[in-house]
Write a structure and sequence with these properties.
alpha+beta; binds ligand Q7M; 49 strands; single chain; 19% helix; elongated; 852 residues; 6-stranded antiparallel beta sheet
């Protein structure tokens, strides 16, 4: 008996359900719904399975296989596929779509009717010859397949089709190909489609790097590391890497490429900067518009060239606008008095777009008349003309000029200069002024005599050569050390024609000259005269020095004695010591939460006391070079990103296994803070029963926290998996370890707040270490935390009543949690208070609290 007819009714319905586009990370090796010709599958015995090929409305075949020998006992019907080539696959999946009839819906079949069938496979390096006899024993069993949904007569009547979809992994396949075989032992089955596929990580672009299509590794939990190659016009920053997971998903992107100069990122590629924009450095930045007065005419410009008449100084960045020399200074005026000539001006109206304006004074002496009375040509000014502050590179807008000659005509040019003056063929920006100095008369002072000289002073006197034209107001004596060549000179004034010049150095030659000042101004200077001061007496000098030393030391010592006596008497010393102790205490209390630690142990410093979390991390955690980290597999999901396991290979040190918490890209600043806060906490602990921080990666992306790897994972799941397998001594040993870790934390002044078996890690030799998973867990784990009335999240079952009620967390409340952990350990990971709801537990506490 066969129900073929009834099945045929639904074939057209099937077609629409079966058309599944498939996902991008699957490579299909066989799909019976898309095979156009014959399938040529074999049946053993020949009258067991039926191969039925119907045509759909577009004349494409629909292949189905049916069997329904439910009345006859001892059925053993085999259906074998054609040879399927493995291609690149390592792990192969088979997706079966079928309907299975419910035995209850068929009358009189009890006993012989089945509701399952079996899937088998056989690996070979090539198709078997047609002559090969079918031997069931050659085939390896994959699984027994049962229906999730079976259909009954009513379903048929309602035309509701209950299609089962089951996926099984086949393999590992190591040979070139394989056959699938379906064994029926007496069920009523219609096998509607068979799809064979493998998963691969599709070729992708990430962080401007291209990653090739990659087939995951056979071992379902390990990852394949794939290096990316930068897209066109991009260059590597940190070696771009991705990891291909077993499900064909790409995980943990590391490193990146950045667009080269002249290119910017757009839609995952590097595109040339448009004309009118430029990019001078490789990096993640966009092209910038050309700065003012510059332009780029071609694509992919790395610099914008200055427009005509505009320039860039050597040190100007390429992002700066092009500039030009300034216009001339404005409103130049001169002022003159007896001794000095002043020039003043205003900044130019056009600074050329720059701020680095300075001024140069160019001086010419024109006019005047020589001995024959002819007007002389302009010539450079005397070199000893004195400019204050200086003649060139003046930053202000005025200058004073000293030592000019009398009755001369000076022409001053004030030139405005900026960083681009002198570039190109630009004219100088000058403002001119001509100043004529008064006639004061020729030099009146002729010979200067030395009357006497001591070590530090010289007495001079002089007489006028001729009768002054007008009354002499006073004399100016100018002098300087001959050796110093007028680098600095001094002057003194006197009304009398003599002076005692003091403050000189012994045995030194000085140059003197003198000029007179009359009502009409200064006369010219006298010629130079050189005089020498007296030699010093060496004995006197030595004694002097000794005296100074002795006086100083005696004085210093007595001062010390007096000060000490004074302090002792007034009791200041004690006060001072007290004050120091107080400030030390203050420093310490700032750093721990009100707990007085045992002496000799460092106290815990809350990273929040640091303004900048990066600073705290730098202090407490080592930065690890990311190239030393070799990520092997993903072991869980954290609050901020994947948790991976891998190895830390620091050159010159033994390799160690590590767990790596990553911070996914696109995080907020607050997330980064919280993430690094954890490292700053862990980095302060050093105890064999506290999880050890190996270091952090903060200087490259993704940010990572690297901690020691614990082979046996979290204590709660570890104990549940090994129920009853340890001695009491072993269990108590674990508890002892946890107690050591918690004692250390409390001595440091750190309150854990979430001590529970799920936060204890176990290593290969059963050593337990206190840690804090926070929000990170193995993916499917639900979390313990329940919200309190104040909105905080608290793991009710583990938390002490005063902490639940008033949020009073302390080392004492940690001790309560430790009690719960003891119960968890001794019961092999039983859930505290079993299935009592958090609500109920809160009520119990209220009772207990009332009693207390
Ligand atoms: F030291 C403490 F306890 F006081 C303290 C620790 C205070 C504050 C923060 C922390 N942080 C902390 O413990 N972080 C932490 C980092 C990595 C906790 C656990 C891990 N971790 C391992 N060492 C894991 C591991 C694992 C391992 N197998 O060695 N986290 C996982 C995981 N496996 C998360 C999900 C799934 C598996």
């Amino acid at each position: 008996m066969s129900s073929r007819g009834k099945y045929c009714v639904f074939l057209f319905l099937l077609k629409s359900i079966l058309s599944d586009p498939g996902t991008s990370n699957q490579v299909v090796l066989l799909d019976t719904t898309t095979v156009l010709g014959e399938l040529d599958w074999k049946t053993y015995p020949v009258n067991g399975w039926d191969a039925i090929t119907e045509m759909d409305e577009q004349n494409r075949p629909i292949h189905t296989f049916q069997v329904c020998h439910v009345m006859e006992p001892n059925q053993n019907n085999w259906l074998r596929s054609g040879w399927i080539q493995r291609q690149a696959a390592q792990r192969v999946y088979v997706e079966l779509r079928f309907t299975l009839r419910d035995c209850n819906s068929i009358p009189w079949v009890s006993g012989t009717c089945k509701e399952t069938f079996n899937l088998f496979y056989l690996q070979t390096d090539g198709p078997l010859p047609d002559s090969t006899r079918f031997r069931p024993t050659d085939y390896a069993k994959v699984d027994t397949i049962a229906a999730d949904e079976s259909f009954t007569q009513t379903d048929l009547g309602d035309r509701v089709l209950r299609l089962n979809t089951e996926v099984r992994e086949v393999g590992p396949i190591t040979q070139k190909g394989f056959y699938l075989a379906f064994q029926d032992v007496g069920a009523c089955i219609a096998l509607v489609s068979v799809k064979v596929f493998y998963k691969r990580c599709p070729s992708t672009l990430r962080n401007l790097a291209a990653f090739p299509e990659t087939v995951p590794q056979m071992d379902s939990s390990s990852l394949v590391e794939v290096r990316g190659s930068c897209v066109e016009n991009a260059e590597e920053r940190d070696t771009p890497k991705l990891y291909c997971g077993a499900d064909g998903d790409w995980l943990v992107p590391l490193g990146r490429c950045v667009c080269s100069i002249g290119h910017e990122e757009m839609d995952g590629y590097c595109q040339a900067c448009k004309p009118g924009s430029f990019k001078a450095y490789a990096g993640n930045t966009k092209c910038s518009k050309c700065p003012l007065h510059s332009s780029s005419h071609d694509q992919a410009a790395t610099i914008c060239h200055c427009d005509k008449g505009f320039y860039r100084a050597l040190k100007d960045p390429t992002t700066m606008a092009c500039t030009r020399p300034p216009s001339a200074p404005r409103n130049l005026v001169s002022l003159i008095n007896d001794t000095a000539l002043f020039l003043q001006w205003m900044p130019p109206s056009d600074t050329g777009g720059r701020k680095d304006i300075t001024y140069n004074i160019l001086c010419q002496r024109c006019g005047g008349s020589d001995s024959s009375g002819a007007v002389t040509q302009c010539e450079p000014c005397e070199p000893d003309l004195h400019f204050i502050p200086r003649p060139l590179g003046i930053t202000g807008t005025s200058v004073a000029i000293l030592d000019f000659a009398m009755l001369a005509s000076y022409t001053f040019h004030v030139e405005a200069v900026n960083g681009v003056s002198g570039l190109g063929m630009t004219a100088r920006s000058l403002a001119n002024v001509t100043v004529t100095t008064h006639q004061a008369g020729p030099a009146l002072v002729g010979v200067v005599r030395k009357d006497w000289a001591s070590q530090n002073s010289i007495a001079l006197s002089w007489s006028e050569v001729e009768k002054p034209p007008s009354d002499i107001v006073d004399y100016e004596v100018k002098y300087y050390e001959k050796e110093q060549e007028q680098l600095s000179y001094s002057s003194t004034r006197t009304k009398a024609p003599s002076v005692v010049v003091t403050g000189l150095r012994p045995s030194t030659v000085y140059v003197f000259h003198v000029r007179a000042r009359t009502a009409a101004g200064y006369t010219a200077y006298s010629p130079n005269f050189e005089f020498t001061t007296a030699a010093e007496d060496p004995d006197i000098a030595d004694q002097g020095q000794v005296l100074v030393v002795v006086t100083a030391s005696v004085g210093g010592f007595s001062l010390l004695v007096i000060l000490t006596l004074f302090l002792l008497i007034t009791g200041r010393c004690q006060g001072y010591i007290k004050a120091r102790m107080k400030s030390e205490e203050k420093r310490r209390t700032r750093f721990h939460s009100g707990h007085v630690p045992f002496s000799g142990i460092k106290t815990y410093v809350d990273p929040d006391t640091y303004e900048d979390p990066t600073q705290a991390v730098e202090e407490f955690a080592k930065e690890i070079n990311p190239s030393y980290i070799c990520i092997e597999r993903v072991i869980g999901a954290g609050e901020f990103g994947e948790v991976c396991s891998g190895r830390l290979r620091v050159p010159g040190r033994m390799d160690i296994s590590v767990a790596i918490k990553t911070l996914k890209g696109g995080y907020m600043d607050q997330q980064r803070r919280d993430f690094l806060r954890e490292a700053s906490i862990m980095g302060q602990f050093n105890n064999p029963n506290i999880i050890r921080l190996e270091g952090v990666v903060t200087k490259s992306r993704p940010i990572m926290i690297v901690v020691e790897y614990m082979e046996n994972g979290a204590l709660d799941s570890f104990l549940r998996a090994r129920d009853g397998q340890f001695t009491v001594l072993q269990l108590v040993g674990m508890l002892r370890g946890i107690a050591v870790g918690m004692t250390y934390l409390s001595e440091m002044g750190y309150v854990h707040r979430d001590l529970a078996a799920r936060n204890i890690l176990v290593d290969e030799s059963l050593v337990c270490k206190v840690s804090d998973f926070g929000m990170s867990r193995v993916l499917e784990d639900d979390t313990e935390a329940a919200y309190t009335a104040t909105g905080g999240k608290i793991p009710i079952r583990w938390t002490a009543p005063e902490a639940i009620a008033y949020g009073k967390f302390s080392s004492a409340s940690d001790v309560w949690s430790y009690g719960i952990v003891m119960w968890e350990v001794m019961s092999y990971g039983e859930r505290p208070y079993w299935e009592m709801s958090n609500q109920d537990k809160a009520i119990v506490y209220q009772h207990q609290w009332a009693v207390l």
